[in-house]
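Intended use. Records like the one below are meant for learning the mapping from a protein sequence to its folded structure. Do not use them to infer anything beyond what is encoded.
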Amino acid sequence: MLAVIAGRLTDANGSLFGLHVQPVYSFLGSLFLQALKMLIVPLILSSIISGVAGMGDGGAMGRLGGKTLLYYLLTTLLAVLAGLTLVNAISPGIVDGMPAKDLLALSHDGDEVAARVAGHGIDDIAGIFLRMVPTNIVAAAADGQMLGLIFFGLLFGYFMTRIDGSVARTLKEFWQGVFAVMMQITEWIMRFAPIGVFALVAGVVASTGFDAFTPLLAFFLTVLAGLAFHFLVTLPLLLLLIGRVNPLRHYQAMAPALLTAFSTASSSATLPVTMDCVENRAGVSNRTTSFVLPLGATVNMDGTALYECVAAMFIAQAYGVDLGFAEQFTVVLLALMTSIGVAGIPAASLVAITIILSSVGLPIEGVGLILAVDRVLDMCRTSVNIFSDSCGAVVIGRSEGESGILQKPPGT
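Structure written out for the chain above:
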């Protein structure tokens, strides 16, 4: 609100005490976005390697691990496809038949961006999988080829579980240490998010007035519609058809965790409440709960993946770039894979969105636009994330033959 007021009081050429304010807005906003870009490679790589390596402990990659990963991949894919369908149907980046680039004060030329996407895109589906195996992993990281970097991280983490002794312990402790440090740096940078959001939003309002909020509202409602569909249709159907339990009872059992997730916007902070609700209110065994939920807090981000997909498509539409099937498949695949590596802290998905935009050749300045509505959407998608984790615990617990799951209302 302060940014809207400041932007309205100072136009694009306005000054305060003799100082032109638009360059100040631009500097602060760019500084925040560059700080996010700085995190991409070490955060994603350390998160994926330490997460995958951790799954190998105590034979966790066995039957239970296979079921868990299959469920998480399925629900994340369904969420991304729901978001992709809605964003193509609603087209929030198109206003009155025209791209919203000028309304949103995007600085890059639309034709230039389209040419970059065409040069950056994938000619066919086979090419996507070829990019997953880079010839030089360091060059791939430097050039922003995150698909190859993520694949390398998955391989590295898995084969860390295949070696024994002090070498394995050293590697595991190293990557866990890197991830812990990157989490701290991410949290520190996100403390400056209010300043970055203020500068980015004020700059847009100063340049375009309130016209920018029309496409932003459409984007906001598109994401909410996708999250609501996944939360109210897809996941209850999985509970009903696969878990064969009453979805209404599960909503009731998870109410405290959902409220905590919505208020904190953090899957990691909500994890203790989620585990308590699933074990003591839904009746899932400790064996299943203690494995499925911590893993889900790291790799299962249905709402986040949906949001990343819609955000990337919205920014492409705003530039007037028509992404073909192969490019949209790239967005889906990257949303699926980067959601695995996103830390369970507020606004960390912004890092993943920059990966997707860079991979398909779109400027990351579009990230600055969605920051204005990101916090509320972050609260909503975190609730979807933890609800999907809890549904996974119920479904997997039922598949393991556990009885008494959601057989009576919570608290009775």
